[in-house]
Amino acid sequence: MRHRAGGGNGAWDVRAVGDLNEAAGLLVAGDDIILALPMDAVLAQRLRLPTVDPSEFREMMRIQVEKTLPFPPEEVTSDFEIIEQSETDSVISAVAVHNQKLTELATPLLNRGHIPRQVTVYAAQRAATHAADGCALMIYPEGDKLVSAISENGKISLTRTLEAGGAEQLQRDLPQLALSAELQGINSSFPTVLLDESCFPLRETVEGIFAQKPRLMGTEAPPAAVKLNLIPESWKERRAALVRRTLWRKRLLWAGGAYGAAFLLFALYIMIIRWQVGSLEGAIKADAPRVAFVKDTETTWKALAPAIDPHYYPIEVLLHLFESLPNPEVRITVYDQSARQISVQGEAPTAALAYQFAEKVKKHPDLQAFRFDLGPPRILPNDHAQFRLEGKTK
Prior knowledge:
By secondary structure, the chain is of the alpha+beta class. The protein contains 10 helices and 17 strands.
């Protein structure tokens, strides 16, 4: 048995292994597997059927195969390939396998969770690779047996498994195979005779039987693709479940990776923020003496403002107040000023003139250093309005 695996450079790595159990040990989860069955595990027939709707071929083929198998139809998986076709009839290569036997053969794979994508026949792969056109006879070993297979246009049409008894047995069995081919309408002259490299000692025997020198064929790397697929429905369901499970596992891994990346970015963001905060705190600490000096200077200037700023001089403030009187009948009766506050009491003929005076004071450009507030005027017995205007520095 040979295990074939794709190499890292695109080439195939072909290895000889003792059995399928050893080959299964070389596989890893997710490998794309094609299982090629030996001839003694399948039933291969060459059938001639009427040319009908292609969708009906499978049912017609299944009926013909069931006639030769001692198993219920539900226990068998079959498939076919068209060898040649005319308007009246079609020649097909039909292959069937008993599902229980297939499961027994593939147990090493199934026990490890490897479900093949395709189950085909090794002879069909060799025929498609080495004899895609015309009629050919292939002779090659399968285990301790020798397989003689006739192919037509790259499809298996007639096979015989021989005990590996050497040249004498081959001389007896190959003529019988040729006779069976003639009875089924196959050209037994065999334009192409292929002999496996491992059977080189039999080359002269084969040449003596068919009067032509056989061509040697090596291991297919890779073999040609074939249509035959004998995978049971139960395997398809298991494979679909494995594919879904693998897909979900990948999604979870991607989600975990995305979450981890987001967490790392968040942690990095926190570190950057902490570094920036530390830098700002250091800058604030370094600037603290200068900030304290500015604040102290501002406090000092505010304390000295009434003494050095003309806007706070009492005579200037009183002048601006008199400039804001709406008319001569509005009089200021009391004026009091401290470092940060002004108190003005007065009397106006009407409350409206008192309010007008307060508005003019608030809008005076040279009195903007104060924030004025007029309390409700008090009406005197002579109907005049007595008011009190308070001003505080901003």
